[in-house]
Amino acid sequence: PTLHQEFTKIMQFAVRGKVFYDILINTNGNCPDKSIEGLKYTTKCMFSVDTLNKELYAKMRKRGGIRTVIETIRRVVEMGHDNVWVRRIITDVNKKEDFKEMVRVIFGDGYVKVSEHYCFDRSKKYDGRHRPTRTYCGYPSQRLVVATDGKVFACCVDYDEKYQVGDVYHQSLLEIWHGSRMNELRENLRNDLANDMELCKTCTSFMSYVDARRDHVQDREL
Fold it and tell me: What are the residue boundaries of the 4Fe4S-binding SPASM domain, all occurrences included (predicted)?
């Protein structure tokens, strides 16, 4: 969203008009300079960086700039934002790093919160005996995803846009939230039918599996 030419004005409107109770932004930190001011209007500002090591960052975040990211985070903190987070996805590339200590060294104590998730191994093969056990996924009861063309989807990991639940140009978000497509999905998940649904059977989020790493899907401060 920070690439939008009027990002800061949109954020100001959202705060002034009290459109939402919470305004959360997840950004990679490579923001246009004029959009940085808009980040201060969020109630929670999450920077997904994966590493603060220059060499590893160049490997993991193609075409991004770690110096830009660090400077953006510092500016948001200096603006007085009191809920800034820095997050990484744990992979084989960065798992040996002391990420929390790196954040502390660069930004100091108490200014930035640290969180980490585990990377879901999409390439791993499972046989019938070792397939992960499914569990209820709460994503469709937490969020909606609105694409740039106005189409709305039920899940943030529906990368192929398999399950459209509405269109903001023809329905309100409230109508979509309580619509038949969303209710059908929630009901199927409650009835343990995830493996029968095209959207869910190949899920790549620990949210839908019995796994200790599921506890890290929701942001939890280290």
Answer: 137-204
CA 64/CA 47 separation, integer angstroms: 13
- pLDDT, position 65: 92
Mean pLDDT (the chain) is 88
Could you give all domains of the chain from N- to C-terminal order, each with its CATH number?
7-118 (3.20.20.70), 139-211 (no CATH)
CA distance 32 to 160: 28
Flag the least confident range among 64-68, 120-124, 160-164: 120-124
Cα–Cα distances (Å) from 42 to 20, 38, 68, 73, in that order, read: 10, 8, 20, 13
Sheet holding 113-118, edge to edge: 24-27, 44-48, 84-90, 113-118
- The C-alpha atoms of residue 71 and residue 169 are separated, in whole angstroms, by 37
CB 120 within 8 A of CB 205: yes
Find, among 104, 101, 89, the residue nearest to 26 by Cα.
Answer: 89
Amino acid 17: pLDDT:
80
What is the C-alpha end-to-end distance of the chain, expressed in Å? Answer: 27
